[in-house]
Each structure stands twice: as C-alpha cells, then as structure tokens.
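Recall the central idea of this unit: under ordinary conditions, the amino acid sequence of a chain determines the structure it adopts. In this exercise we apply that idea directly, starting from the sequence alone.
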Amino acid sequence: MTPDQAALVRKAQASIASARLLLENGYPDFAISRAYYAMFYVAEALLLMLGLSFSKHGGVIAAFGQHLAKTGRVPVAFHRYLIEGQASRHAGDYDLSARLTPADAAEQIDRAGQFLKLAEELLGPLPTES
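Accordingly, the structure predicted from this sequence is:
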C-alpha cells in the first residue's frame, strides 16, 4: 500500500466513524454523506493501484466501474453501492424534501465498511503510522 493509498484508507475509516456518530445523534442525512465519502476514498485508493487518478466524482465512479467492476477485480455490487451512495448523498445534501431514514444511513455505513474490507483484501493491511 502506497502512502497515498494509506492516507485515503485512513480518511475512509474516519468518515465511517463520523457517519456512526452522526447517525447515533439523529443526523441520518449527514451520516449518509460521510458513508459515501468513505466508499469514494476507498475507490480512489483502489484506482491508484492501476495508476489512475481523477479530479471529479463522476470520473472516479466511471473508472471504478470500467477498470475494477467490469474486469472482475471487484464484485460488481461495489460499483452499484458507489453509484447509489452518491445518489443518496446528493439527496441528503441538496434535496430539501428528501426523507432519508436511520435505516438508509445504517445500510450506507455497512456498505462503507465492506469497502474498507475490500481495500484490505486488495491493498493489504493499513501500515502503522510512524
């Protein structure tokens, strides 16, 4: 795991911890946003193993599907999780009438945890900070 990948995985871990705190305190929409970012950071870290980096969310999501899901390097469900996570984040952040529930947030947090496990499988364990 490169230093950049490790930094992204650490950000993903912090995002999941934040998502849990937000959910516990009654903010499912903000929890969903943090869970999505955890998935996004892991997606970025996994794309780095292919030498790919993007400046926009759409580029990361599309490349994740093309280079990781469609090739079988990761289960296709992870691409769907990323797409659905972004849609839920957009609803929570921008749709004033969105009704995101604690169950919705818990599902996104669970998916984000699955992304962390995937990162460990493909990139190895997170190195200790020195």
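The chain has one domain: 3-123.
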